From TrEMBL:
Protein name: RsmB/NOP family class I SAM-dependent RNA methyltransferase
Record keywords: Methyltransferase, RNA-binding, S-adenosyl-L-methionine, Transferase
Organism: Shewanella nanhaiensis
Biological processes annotated in GO: methylation
Record-linked InterPro entries: MeTrfase_RsmB-F_NOP2_cat, MeTrfase_RsmB-F_NOP2_dom, RCMT, RsmB-like_ferredoxin, SAM-dependent_MTases_sf
GO MF, one example: methyltransferase activity
Record lineage: Bacteria, Pseudomonadati, Pseudomonadota, Gammaproteobacteria, Alteromonadales
UniProt keyword Transferase, yes or no: yes
Length: 404
């Protein structure tokens, strides 16, 4: 993961960020912005810190076990956890001002014990391991292991402004190294630790940060210029902007959500991207949906989900979530699918998507919907496996409305 130890000050920063997430329950993004704003860290050191924090959160239970520290004890015993982390990665221990000793013999005894517990080794909480086993059976172990890998950084070329080759070249001139991603036309993987959002290419709207799997989901919408497309759970518009580019700015693209602040954010991003055919609309009540009855050539339902396919990118969620959330989400997904599908016109396509790899949120939902809605027919579906793709995990299904 790293080939040299963290400096004492970076180690202290890691402990403080972890403490904010684990003791105060703050989201990881917020903890980063609190800690990094005002500090003049060089981009590579900031990248090292985020890599270490990410790695620790992906296998928090393992590092806690090895150091015999509880997550809520990080502010007091964080240095012992950091020592265990350095030992695990075979790095020299940082010379901290206040360091609580870690008995190395005990560490190595615990290491041997941990190797015999695959879920602990993979940084998986017990409830998630039970759920994954129940839903995916034998396929779970490789997904569980893949979910603790460091996520790759992907960007999507904004083809409204440039080609992928032009973007790669421009970024190279800005000291950002990228490689093309096979099978995803618009995607580049960023392989250098560069401050992407400070580049001129970003400011000019030539790219957006977006996982390659998410780009594949957006591509499955297959929107054409001139169509009428609705992205009904658009959030801040990761996929909306991709769809706008497919439409080459022609036709109508309606981005909807129940949260206005996300749509406001989307509008800003659309302006930078030159996505001129995007319109936003808040879903205030069921009337908003009814008014759009039988109107869409394409409807993307990127529904709220457990997010279990994107845990390597959002590892703090593993330690905040509980299994009780899933049934609530499954009900909401069912409701959205049933009620929002009214917006698809005859001959139009509904794309149901999640960033989960659990069948209960995916194919099971689609099957239950089709059993009750004969005016839709199944075309195809795909689960993007975290283990097989190296991307985040997603599901997408394409259904066609064949009658009113
Ligand atoms: C998976 S996220 C969407 C991510 C987004 N499509 C993207 O690519 O960046 C799901 C979104 O659904 C929204 N949402 C939650 N309940 C909803 C509802 N009843 N109707 C529409 N959207 C809803 C959430 O606010 C959230 O933005």
């Amino acid at each position: 993961m790293l080939n040299s130890p963290l400096s004492p000050s970076s180690t202290e920063l890691v402990i403080s960020i972890l403490d904010m997430v684990l003791s105060e329950g703050k989201p990881l993004d917020r903890a980063y912005s609190v800690h990094f704003s005002g500090l003049q860290l060089i981009p590579s050191e900031q990248a090292r810190i985020t890599k270490v924090v990410g790695d620790i959160l992906r296998r928090l239970n393992l590092y806690c076990f090895l150091s015999d520290v509880k997550p809520e004890e990080i502010s007091r015993l964080g240095s012992r956890l950091m020592n265990a982390w350095h030992l695990f990665h075979e790095l020299e221990l940082p010379k901290l001002q206040y360091s609580l000793p870690l008995a190395e013999a005990e560490y190595f005894a615990r290491l041997e014990e941990a190797k015999l517990q695959p879920a602990l080794w993979d940084g998986c909480p017990e409830w998630l391991d039970t759920m994954g086993q129940a839903q995916l059976g034998d396929a779970w172990a490789k997904e569980r292991a893949a979910l603790n890998a460091q996520p790759k950084r992907f960007i999507r070329t904004n083809i409204l402004k440039c080609t992928r080759e032009e973007l790669a070249k421009k970024l190279r001139n800005e000291q950002v190294q990228t490689v093309e991603v096979d099978g995803v036309d618009t995607a580049l993987e960023v392989v250098s630790d560069s401050a992407l959002f400070r580049t001129e290419s970003f400011k000019k709207g030539w790219f957006e940060q977006q996982d390659a799997g998410s780009q594949l989901v957006a591509a499955a919408v297959d929107a054409k210029p001139g169509m009428r497309v609705i992205d009904a759970c658009a959030g801040a518009g990761g996929k909306t902007l991709s769809i706008a580019a497919q439409m080459k700015g022609k036709g109508r693209l309606l981005a909807m959500d129940v949260e206005q602040w996300k749509l406001d954010n989307l509008k800003q991003r659309a302006r930078r991207a030159n996505a001129s055919n995007v319109e936003t609309r808040i879903i205030a009540s069921s009337k908003t949906i009814k008014r759009l009855k039988l109107s869409a050539d394409r409807l993307l339902l990127d529904v709220p989900c457990s997010g279990l396919g994107v845990l390597k990118r959002n590892p703090d969620a593993k330690w905040r979530d509980t299994p009780d959330r899933l049934p609530v989400l499954v009900e909401l997904q069912k409701h959205i699918l049933q009620s929002y599908s009214r917006m698809v016109k005859v001959g139009g396509i509904l794309i149901y998507a999640t960033c989960s790899i659990m069948p209960e949120e995916n194919r099971d939902q689609v099957d239950a919907f089709l059993a009750e809605n004969e005016h839709f027919t199944f075309l195809e579906d795909e689960t993007i496996s975290v283990a097989d793709s190296g991307f985040d995990g997603f599901y997408m299904a394409r259904l066609e409305r064949i009658a009113e």
